[in-house]
Amino acid sequence: MTIQRFVGRPDWYTTFNPETLAATGTPLRWGVVATGSIARTVTSDLALLEDAVLQSVSSRGQASAAAFAQDFGFAAHYFDGGPDGSAGAGYLQLVADPDVDVVYIATPHAQHYDIARAALENGKHVLCEKALTITAAEARTLIALAREKQLFLMEAVWARFVPGFQRALEIIESGEIGEVQWVRADLGFPAPLDDSARIWAPADGGGALLDISVYPLLWAWGTLGRPDSLHAAAKLTDLGVDAQNALSLSYANGAQAQLISYLGAQGPRTASVAGSLGYIETVGSVNNPKGLKISVGWDSERTEMFEYPGRGYTYQLREVTRCVQAGLTESATMPLDDSLAIMELFDEARRQMGVHYWNDTRTDI
Ligand SMILES: NC(=O)c1ccc[n+]([C@@H]2O[C@H](COP(=O)([O-])OP(=O)(O)OC[C@H]3O[C@@H](n4cnc5c(N)ncnc54)[C@H](OP(=O)(O)O)[C@@H]3O)[C@@H](O)[C@H]2O)c1
Questions:
Q1: Is residue 130 flagged as an active site residue?
Q2: Within 10 A of 128 (CB to CB), how many other CB atoms are there?
Q3: For 21-62, how does the pLDDT look when each residue is reduced to its tens digit (9 = 90+)?
Q4: Which listed residue (130, 149, 235, 293) is catalytic?
Q5: Is the pLDDT of residue 11 over 90?
Q6: Ligand 1 neighbourhood includes 61 CB (under 6 angstroms)
């Protein structure tokens, strides 16, 4: 059976993959932009890769740049203004660093476009946190620039690479659960409403859609492909970002997906994929399930559990490293056309939900 799923499971992939950390070629010199929560988590996984060099980090502030550099052993650190106050933004100094090969961008969504663009214009490869940008128009421009300059660019959807997700695709492709009929997935957490925090602030591209929905969507996109129609509904905050959204996807073959993302509930955070013969359910969160329950027919059931090094980010970091070492400009597992198509879907979801960002009307891209 052939399902519409991502092209090309990484060839280094095995279900339990202790080899993710082993060098696959010339060491890659990394520059990390921002010192926030995910920058810290991903950098601690990056440090596990044998062929990763922690070269530079940038921050808006001197103290945070210096502390981050010291904690992880970065060779250089940059901050807004530089030592004499005249050096410009820290990230601009980092992208000009000749000893940096690849830039990992870990700022809020609203800064992704400008920083990724500056990195590409300075000849750097880029791994950019999700959402790649705020609008499809921004994504389209970045992708065109990366292709024109023949540089690697990838949206950091690490959940595509983790063993639990890749194994689910493998099981589905084997035909064990039959033809996929529907997908249900949810992800979120209860976050105190604070309009100034990046997940809530309109100026930062806040809201559940851009922050979370890529993960539940992954399960529909991976098993059924790009949907033929979308219905989106949301609960908005007073400032107009989605505190919760429900995406309902339909496919020409009759398959359906129901996806919920939320910032105000404690939910199961699981995915189910139901086929004509059986179903798969995640054990643990949709973005990195620690196991899968596979149920076929009425009385056959088993659970597979997965182990992985670090916090689960090493797989995407290995993929970036392997691609750049091999001279590839994009990953077959997280292709740029998928990032763009997902941003287009999110643009349409926002249109239906009534969520608008300043980026929707920007003219400088
Ligand atoms: N892959 C994942 O599992 C995962 C998980 C969480 C978040 N994310 C993504 O990672 C990104 C950052 O999220 P986060 O949770 O790490 O946020 P965070 O903890 O708020 O950190 C973001 C960092 O970006 C910098 N920053 C903040 N505001 C900025 C601004 N206006 N201009 C430039 N830089 C600014 C700050 O670093 P400095 O002070 O050092 O400049 C800040 O610490 C988002 O795209 C988010 O969707 C991914």
A1: yes
A2: 26
A3: 889 999 999 999 999 999 999 999 999 999 999 999 999 999
A4: 130
A5: no
A6: yes
